[in-house]
From TrEMBL:
Name this protein carries in UniProt: Cytochrome b561
Gene Ontology process terms (BP): respiratory electron transport chain
Protein keywords: Cell membrane, Electron transport, Heme, Iron, Membrane, Metal-binding, Transmembrane, Transmembrane helix, Transport
Subcellular location, record wording: Cell membrane
Record's GO cellular component terms: plasma membrane
Family: Belongs to the cytochrome b561 family.
Superkingdom field: Bacteria
GO terms assigned for molecular function: electron transfer activity; heme binding; metal ion binding
Main localisation: membrane
Record has Transport as a keyword: yes
Membrane spanning residue stretches: 20-42, 54-76, 97-116
Sequence ranges assigned to domain Cytochrome b561 bacterial/Ni-hydrogenase in this UniProt record: 14-132
Cofactor(s) needed for function: heme b
């Protein structure tokens, strides 16, 4: 690769591209959790709709960045800093592997759910899935981790989503 060395990973540190992927994903995932957390606590309120209204688009961007990040990680695999040795190094590798798996599986499950729903899926105006007249229940259930609970004793908020 003929990129400036500060952009690339090396054995001592991650390069700017890896850091950009990391912090962009962190910010977008936090945005998603804030939005869905507010919705779980307050329901469909006007002030929550700003966050919820961006959920599909932000989720689509997250998925695209995760795919690019995985490709970048594979391209840099021989250059990346070590996670260390022993149990801590193994735990770091396992933790990172689990995070990568979640960052791929959650959007894939959401896409499968969208494909089986009646609403269609068109992030940024690009139709990925057309609207259907009826749901495909098994597809909707794959991505549906929504569970209803009783009203909380004080405040009356409902918990709408249980997150992994």
């Amino acid at each position: 690769m003929n990129l400036p060395s500060r952009l690339l990973d090396n054995s001592a540190s991650y390069g700017l591209i890896s850091r950009l992927f990391h912090w962009t994903l962190a910010a977008l995932i936090i945005w998603q959790f804030i939005g869905m957390g507010l919705r779980a606590i307050f329901g469909r309120q006007p002030f929550v709709s700003f966050f919820v209204g961006t959920h599909q688009q932000v989720g689509t961007v997250i998925f695209m960045i995760v795919v690019l990040r995985v490709i970048w990680m594979l391209a840099m695999r021989k250059r990346r800093p070590s996670h260390g040795t022993g149990w801590l190094g193994l735990a770091a590798k396992a933790g990172h592997g689990a995070l990568y798996l979640l960052m791929l599986l959650v959007p894939v499950a959401a896409l499968i759910r969208a494909a089986g729903s009646t609403r269609g899926f068109a992030p940024f105006g690009f139709t990925i899935f057309e609207k259907h007249e009826s749901e495909v229940s098994w597809m909707k259930q794959i991505g549906d981790c929504q569970r209803r609970s009783k009203n909380l004793p004080k405040g009356g908020a409902k918990v709408d989503h249980l997150w992994v």
